[in-house]
């Protein structure tokens, strides 16, 4: 995925508060991914409010946008995680940095 496409996908995810899965294939071997909500973009950094395997918000991860090789929105997984967020009454927030 090109850097421009990654940036466009991240901006759309931030605007729509959509759950995404980020991959950094050059740093972490597949199938490693970071699931969560994009809550901040700035310069070369992305702030992701992580969603854990327990389906809870699990802190923030700050990653370099240049390290991201793909941004995915697997539709069934996204719908499941967003429904779980509504049921559990959690909402992604920026860490305020």
Which characteristics define this entry?
5 strands, 29% helix, 97 residues, alpha+beta
Give me the secondary-structure topology.
Blueprint: H1 3-16, E1 19-23, E2 34-42, E3 45-51, E4 57-64, E5 70-72, H2 75-88
Assembly annotation: single chain
Mean pLDDT: 88
Give a quick account of the main beta sheet: strands, pairing sense, barrel closure: 5 strands, antiparallel
Distance between the termini: 28 Å
Q: Strands of the largest sheet, in order across it?
A: 4-3-2-1-5
% residues in beta strands = 25-35%
Total number of helical segments?
2
What would your notes on this structure say?
- With 97 residues, the protein is an alpha+beta fold.
- Helix content is 29%, strand content 33%.
- The protein is built from 2 helices and 5 strands.
- A hairpin with a 2-residue loop joins strand 2 (34-42) and strand 3 (45-51).
Short description:
With about 100 residues, this protein is α+β, with helices and mostly antiparallel strands.
